[in-house]
Amino acid sequence: MPEKSNPSSAKPRLVVRNARIKDISAIRTLVSKVYEPSKMGTYSAAMLRGQINNFSEGQFVAEYQGAIVGYCATFLIDAQYALKPHTWREITGGGYASRHNPDGDYLYGMEVCVDPDYRGLRIGQRLYDERKKLARSWGAKGIVFGGRLPTLAKRLRRFGTAEDYLDQVKSSQQRDPVLTFQMRNGFEVLGLMQDYLPEDKESLGYAVHLLWRNPNAPDEQEEKRAKTYGARLPDTVRVATVQYMQRRVGSFAEFIDLVRYFVDVTADYRADFVVFPELFSLQLLSMEDQELSPAESIEALTKYTEPLKEALRDMAVRHNINIIGGSHPTRMPNGRVENVCYICLRGGEIHEQPKIHPTPNEVYWWNIEGGHSMNAINTDCGPIGVLICYDAEFPELGRHLVDQGANILFVPFCTDERQSYLRVRYCGQARAVENQCYVVLSGNVGNLPNVHNMDIQYAQSCILTPCDFPFARDGIAADTTPNVETVAFADLRLEALRAARNSGTVQNLKDRRHDLYTTIWREK
């Protein structure tokens, strides 16, 4: 007879751990539930991805019996920003934690929320304790944040001003459900910040500027500790860009053999990434015996979508390399045609990035429509992003990816003549400068005379860097000869990006005026 299970062995389990990308959906649900009464909304998936990618060690969830019931978001920032008055949007980079500085003096607490149905479990206390542990382990001078006053709107008439209410709470003559808890946890009041979060109607936009001092922080005179980065990104990432020749092929197998050749070559050079050009799969249309209409061409290509994805995934795993698979016109389940890049990682995962802005030619010839999602993709070499050709000419998209933690932007492109190419290249260089990131361009050469919109090609593929002392003199890590089939390699140091962003000659990301402007991504 089997033994009966012991009911006492199935005890409820509450754990606090670092948040993961796969937790994003559950965190969004939690935040929506917590802030629904105050109509403050929730974080977008991109914001949460940015928080985790920018500083994974600083994001925590409380998990009770498998459900996410608490969330805590934290990043590092310099004292000059943390200790002076600020707004939530300004200090957090619009909610992405994009102002995280690995060498920052203070931890900044941008969020703590707890499921109201589980508040008897002291989850908030556990999350505060986890933050303090993090501050001690990093040698931070303390923790700073803006605390809400969720009862202020109801009580203001009684106290007259927000300052008077704060004085009453500080002197223990009045109890506030949030601030009193924070003061009991060792936080001191630095002041009151007006218009901290205007959407917080319950707090009338106010926040209390709070500071916890780390008693174990090193003295100012001590030599600054060497920081570690947890699951540290590799210091050097080797990337390869394929300048791919369009020519007639006789079968799908022949096309895949050509692609496999370049994957094999770049893997032999131990590249971490290889990128192919936009629409490189249109080469498959050269197999047709007669010239097809645009509608017929799309239908002909659609049947190759799944075989292409499987072939690229198989190559990525077998050759131990991450493949940025150019782009392929794809008919979506709803009947739309989108220009999609398939990113095949060497662990076997496949990610998709649609082109957001189809060009007038794509709309005219292929009836291609723009996609709606632009997400950073987590890889074994850190977060990356993909901007397909024309998308690189829209600065909001590159900034959106970098806010989510992307360090390298891959730009598969397809241009017919030099002016078109230079638009993509100059914009790629601008994205590298303004976002202090690497940008990798890959284009087609050759021609396909019987394929609409692929008659002629012009390309000079390249690997671009920010323009500052740690990088190549002209902001070009690698370049190619125009209009010949070739491969270019470059070793990109992620540590150089961190140094440039936090102590470079100019610090574009850090110096953004979040108090004046921001980019808001509307998710569908």
Determine and state the CATH class of the largest domain: Alpha Beta
Largest sheet: 12 strands, mixed
Q: The CATH topology of the largest domain, please?
A: Nitrilase/N-carbamoyl-D-aminoacid amidohydrolase
Spatial extent as radius of gyration: 26 Å
Strand pairing plus helix content: what structural class?
alpha/beta
Overall average pLDDT: 91
Secondary structure tally: strands? 19
Number of domains: 2
CATH superfamily of the largest domain: Carbon-nitrogen hydrolase
Q: Give the termini distance in whole angstroms.
A: 55 Å
- What is the number of helices? 15
Second rung of CATH, namely the architecture of the largest domain: 4-Layer Sandwich
Shape estimate: elongated
Low-confidence stretches: 1-9, 221-233
Helicity, in percent? 25-40%
- Portion of residues in beta strands equals 15-25%
Domain N-acetyltransferase: 14-217
InterPro entries: Acyl_CoA_acyltransferase, C-N_Hydrolase, C-N_Hydrolase_sf, GNAT_dom
Protein name: GNAT family N-acetyltransferase
Domain CN hydrolase: 237-494
Question: How would you sum up this structure, described in words?
Answer:
With 524 residues, the chain is an alpha/beta fold. Helix content is 30%, strand content 24%. Strands 8, 9, 10, 11, 12, 13, 14, 15, 16, 17, 18 and 19 form a twelve-stranded mixed β-sheet that branches. Strands 1-2-3-4-5-7-6 form a seven-stranded mixed β-sheet, with helices on both faces. Helix 13 (395-403) links the parallel strand 14 and strand 15 (408-413). Helix 9 packs parallel to helix 11 (305-319). It starts with 13 loop residues before the first strand and ends in a 21-residue tail after the last helix. Mean pLDDT is 91; it is low at 1-9 and 221-233. GO terms for molecular function: acyltransferase activity, transferring groups other than amino-acyl groups. Residues 14-217 form the N-acetyltransferase domain.
